[in-house]
Fold:
Amino acid sequence: MDDYRKTVKNRIVVMSVFNCMAICLIILANMGIFPVANGGHMDFIRGFLTGVIIALELLFVIYIAIFGRTLKNEEALRKQYIRETDERNHAILEKIGGIGYQFLPPLFLTATVVSGFFNQTVFFTLLVCTLVVSLFRGVLKLYYRKKL
Structure:
């Protein structure tokens, strides 16, 4: 359990660093240091980027609080460990495309955010790809949860 405790502490550190980076990015983007791609949809892209970054910050803060609370309670730490190492969840993950498919939506979302600073066409294309992959993954996850 000590190894898992270290893993949770490392997650808290990584999320804290990414949260600080997200705060810096949103400040720099809204100050105009990182200009958004030119065109007719600049306000939409700027709003989307701000919304995504704020949502990520909120997720980081929520998970930091959850993991921090988990570290203080040995029983909660044990339950979290069991939840993460559950064989049924691993089987569902393998059925919907394995670990590689798990990283696709966050990678597409990251590419969408980055492309918003450069090109509107690429931004909207990646946005649609992110939505389609996320919906498809969600549907497969629901299907295999009921089937397995």
In short: The helical segments are 2-31, 42-72, 74-84, 87-95, 98-115, 120-147. The chain has a mean pLDDT of 86. The chain has two domains: 1-85, 87-148.
